[in-house]
Amino acid sequence: MTDQQRPKQRQTQLPAADIRLREFQEWIEAIYGEKDRARGLQGTYMWFAEEVGELTRALRRQHDRDNLLEEFADVLAWLSTLASIAGIDLQEAVEHKYGKGCPYCEAVPCDC
Ligand SMILES: [Zn+2]
After folding, report:
1. If DSSP codes are grouped into helix, strand and coil, which group holds residue 94?
2. What is the pLDDT along the chain (112 residues), one digit of tens a residue?
3. Residue 108 C-alpha to ligand 1 middle, in angstroms?
4. How far is CA 66 from CA 47, 61, 63, 85, in A?
5. Three-state DSSP state, 88
6. What is the whole-number distance in angstroms between the Cα of residue 1 and the centre of ligand 1?
7. How far is 54 from 76, CA to CA, in rounded Å?
8. 93 CA from centroid of ligand 1 (Å)
9. Staple partner for 74: which of 41, 51, 60, 85, CB 3.0–4.6 Å?
10. Domains in the chain with CATH codes
11. Could you give the CA distance from residue 81 to residue 22 in angstroms, rounded to a whole number?
12. How far is CA 12 from the centre of its chain?
């Protein structure tokens, strides 16, 4: 049996440490992709914007680290699902724009 014929095992856990952005995007898509695609880009964007507001509030408070962890994860998850709906591979996007350092001067750290 070739790898292609073998039935795909359903992933039940986020890959361990050093997860790549692409794996995270696939993970979020596996969890929410169907619902988010049905809601569509505009409705999903509204959720993303709401989560950015919640992150803003958590950053203003600063003292609740658990809340900060939660809100950063939420914003990244909603950004990821927006990218999926829009047909954008986040890892490709990040590599394309920031793969050589600062996109304007290409220095690390930025020399602009
Ligand atoms: Zn620069």
Report:
1. helix
2. 455 555 556 666 666 667 889 999 999 999 999 999 999 999 999 999 999 999 999 999 888 999 999 999 999 999 999 999 999 999 999 999 999 999 999 999 999 9
3. 8
4. 21, 12, 9, 29
5. coil
6. 51
7. 13
8. 18
9. 51
10. 21-98 (1.10.287.1080)
11. 12
12. 18
SS3 state at 103: coil
> What is the 101 CA–ligand 1 centroid distance (Å)?
8
Tokens of 58: 């958590």
Exposed / middle / buried, residue 9 (Cβ in 10 Å: 0-12, 13-18, 19+): exposed
Tokens 């020399």 -> residue: 111
CB 77 within 8 A of CB 33: no
